[in-house]
Amino acid sequence: MKSALSDLHLHNEEAAFAHVEARLWPNGPVCPHCKGTERIGKLNGKTTRAGLYKCYTCKKPFTVRMGTVFESSHVPLHIWLQVIYLMASSKKGHPTRQIQRALECSMKTAWFLGHRVREAMKALKVEPMGGEGETIEADETWIGGKAANRAFGPIPPKVAVVSLVQRNGGVRSFTVPRVTATNLAPIIARHVNADTRFMTDESNVYSHAGTWYASQETVNHSAKEYVRDDVFTNTVEGFFSILKRGVYGVYFHVSEAHLHRFLAEFDFRYSHHSKVGVDDAERAALVLDGVKGKRLTYRTVGGKRPAATSP
Ligand SMILES: [Zn+2]
């Protein structure tokens, strides 16, 4: 039996570079400085670090890490790929503390790695979801505000999260200051194709949020109605249950400032789950499609008190 964890690119630095290069440069190396693809040579000296190329057009060296979330990190690429694999394959998320222990790095490094991987998981495609014959369920939930997660100080306020789940498809989640028609309208207009069947509970914010979809059907939860033929919101509620078990059970506390990245992580995994035919290794490879152009610095992540707030 061959374990996915024995793949060479998770253990060998040269293999890790070859793996990432094949994904990011399907037609061969591209110079990140001048975008040149000709006159590029691989540097293979004994003391040369793995994956180093030189562009003879602009005379500059580069690796595939440049211009990606991997840039300016001292963590070897094969270790990055291990973190990506763990995060892409754990349904409810992978604790920062476990990454720190597995890598024997500082909590600060583990916390930062996690956030950069989450950044890579952010959906690149922003075309509307749904379409003719497709069904999207929408609902809202509140995250945070649990006294048990707070040793001292005031209990942080709950944050409203709205998710759009396409049946047999992906999910997109958003934080909103308040669940109002005004806040939901632009999200629905941008992310839901107008030919979609749209399903919600009886809350009328969605009906006031616009009629950009073919039909809106509601189930009346207050009258104890949960399913009427194929009109239900169980899919989005199922997603919320995974999200909450992850946020409260794995990450314990997610601050409002970082919640959008955690939502990206849960959206990503759910949208590429095994039911839609994506296995763990493929899901990890899909993360690589999002690493480009997302060079995060510790400052832009807003790093402060990492160990205390994100165990
Ligand atoms: Zn160049």
Fraction of residues in β-strands? 5-15%
| SSE class | alpha+beta
Q: Give the helices and strands as they follow along the chain.
A: HEEEHHHEEEHEHEEEHHHHH
Mind summarizing the main beta sheet?
Answer: 5 strands, mixed
Radius of gyration (CA) equals 22 Å
- Tell the overall outline: elongated
Q: Give the termini separation.
A: 34 Å
Q: Please report the total strand number as a whole number.
A: 10
Instruction: Name the ligand types.
Output: zinc ion
Q: Overall pLDDT, averaged?
A: 84
Helix percentage:
25-40%
Strand neighbour order, sheet with most strands:
6-5-4-7-8
Give an overview in words.
With 311 residues, this protein is an alpha+beta fold. The protein has helices at residues 13-24, 77-89, 96-103, 107-121, 181-191, 205-208, 234-249, 259-271, 280-288, 298-301, 306-309; strands at 40-42, 53-55, 60-62, 135-143, 159-166, 171-176, 197-201, 215-219, 227-228, 231-232. The site of zinc ion has 8 residues, from loops.
